[in-house]
Fold this protein.
Amino acid sequence: MNTQNAKIAQELFKNAIQLMRQEAFTDPTVSDTRVIANLAAKHIKWDCYDSYHVIEMLLQECNDKEVADEFSKIPQVFNTQWES
């Protein structure tokens, strides 16, 4: 992604946060992180397995690879829990 596209994407993302805040929440002071979580959950259609992957990738992007590596084990635990 070139710099211009990244700037456009960031601006669209900010706008998406504001639109979702207005649409999905009654409290206008709800945090951006809560709104972002709501957007992400809707995008992955509330799939828990996908949510673990999103969290892992977010940790990677934030350069917390150690926690991301540990977090990557959660889907296996999740699958074991539901297979029993």
About this structure: The chain has two domains: 1-43, 47-84. Residues 47-84 form one domain.
